[in-house]
Structure formats: C-alpha cells, structure tokens
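Explain my protein.
***
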Amino acid sequence: MKIDLTETNSSKINAALVQARRDIGTPAIGMVLTLVIVTDEENAYDALKSANDASHEHPSRIVVVIKRVSRSPRSRRDARLDAEVRVGADSGTGETVVLRLHGELVDHAQSVVLPLLLPDAPVVVWWPDGAPSDLAGDPLGALGQRRITDTYSCEDPIGALAKRAAAYAPGDTDLSWTRITPWRSMLAAALDQQRVSVVSALVEGEDENPSCELLAMWLADRLGVPVQRTLSSGPGLTAVRLETKDGAIVLDRADGALATLCMPGQPDRAVALKRRDTAELLAEELRRLDPDNTYESSLRFGVTRLASSADPAPAKPAPKPAPAKAEAEATEAAAAPKPPKKAAAK
C-alpha cells in the first residue's frame, strides 16, 4: 500500500502510517529498529531495495531522506516536505517512509526525522554514498547508535579511510569492513589449526580497494608483522599469504566465488567465498548494534602506518676499492708527513 503526501509534515506522516496499518489489518508494530538512509535520487532506488531485502531478517521502519538541491535562490527559500508512505508488501516486512526535502528544510533534516523514529528502539543511520567526514557530529548521524558508510563508493577510498580514522566515534562502521568478515574468519581458523607464528603477510587485490587495505591493516595490527600490499586485476580481494616457519598459509580467490585454502602439511581445500551483495552486508551489520572494537583498532592503525610497518630495505654496503687502488691509498697515507708532537708541559 502506498500513500503520497505533498507539502506535508511529520505529524501527518505518522497519521498516515497508523491509517495504513489499519487498512491492511496489521495494527501491531513488530519492528525492531529504525533504519535511516541518507541518499540522493540517483542512489535511492538501489539503497531502498537493499534495505527492504535486509528487513526480512530485521523488520524495521525505513526512513529514506532525499535532499533535493534547489537551483534558484527563490526555490532555496521555499521549504517543502513531500513524503511517500509504504506499508505491507511494498515495504518488505516493515514500513517505509520516503522523505523529499526542499529548500531550507534540507539543512534541518533531523527535525523532520526525529518524530518518525520508533519509540524505545535502536536507530541506525546509513549513507550509501556521500557520507560526511564526521559521522557522529552530523545532525542525522547523532540520532543513531550505529552509523554505516561505504568507502568503496568514494572517489578516493584510501583518503576516505583516513578521514574515518580521524573522526571515528563508537558505533561507526563501514561496509568495506563487512566485506572481509569471511576472509578474517577463515584466516583466524587456519591459524588456530596451525598454531605457528606468522613472520610476514601479503594481501593481493585491486588498486584503491578499501577492503584490501582494511584487511592488510587488520593483519598488521593483530599479528604485529610486516604486511605487503600487492595489486591484481581483481575482482576485489584475490589472495592473502601468511608466511610461517613451517610454510605459507595461502587463501586464494581468483574468480570472486570459490577460494582455495593451502596450509602446510594438509591437502588443498576449496572453500566458498563469494562476493556478497549490499543487502547481505547490511543485514550483517544490523545483527550487532554495539561498537566494533576490532574495526576501530584496525582503522586507527592507519593506511600510512601500514606502509611503514614493512621491514626497511637493508642499506647497501659501500663498494670496496680495487686492490691496486687500495694499495696506492695506503702507501700515500703512510708517506704523508705527520704533525709534530707538542712538548709535554713541565
């Protein structure tokens, strides 16, 4: 069921939600959280589709905030709120409210969203694209216990990771970190079986891929070893190699779906390691609403420290002089007049 509201307000939107639930015969509210999506018209459809798919695991009220940029000075002064209310089959397993903010209302989105939050329920804010530098300091971000971004969609993913580290607050997370959860699980399980010390590591993947950088930072931070970052044609993260005294532990995924795990003294095995879509990543993040300390530690390790953690190249020894030249230099030094000794003071 869909209800379109033009030039409306939060009170009328809440009334429309109640009326829609009564019309379809589901007056009870069984939702566990409020998911606020901050996006634009271009990315709103894909983001809402992913949120609806994730709502099958986490029934929620989805509030989509679309800020419409006004072109003329007059239209920028005219504040207007248009809304679309979806209940039932059109909104997954919960409720959906699509807000389109015009004019000066764009700068006061939190005042529109606040009355629409579910009472006594957690709030999660998600920026599919164009996230602010300081998530917790953003007016909409301040409403949420969890704040989700995706640096993979940024023009400069590595620079975005540095900004996330500088302004990190408990509750921040990123879907680039969620993408490497299966990799971290398999590598941790492999080390539990081997019980050996890792002396160095190598992470192979696409250039400018934040998931590769985060995995490398996680290894360097948790293992305290040099981590080398190499490039491949992808897709995404393709291989991780852990060097140990007994041999190498290699997790190689060349096709983006099936990986091969190689460990010393054991036969190679095929493991499922497919690239997951946004709905699966979002559903994983909604399973836990407490701060992710491991992500914080890895992120604060820093992209720049990752390069400096590698062993420095050994200094090249000075070239030894040729024998004939060395003999001539020694003879010349012996023939040089020595300075006269000073008389000892009586």
In short: The chain has a mean pLDDT of 84. The radius of gyration is 29 Å. The longest strand covers residues 60-67.
